[in-house]
């Protein structure tokens, strides 16, 4: 895989993807915790 990070749009896209993934992971974790609490209740 060649390194395209020197191309600004690619860099921005890559960063945006990382942020989306981070947010998605956070929401997923939150949902799992809420589901677990409801299941325990």
TrEMBL record:
Query: Mind telling me what this protein is named?
Result: Uncharacterized protein
**The species this protein was found in:** Cyclobacterium lianum
The organism's taxonomy opens as: Bacteria, Pseudomonadati, Bacteroidota, Cytophagia, Cytophagales
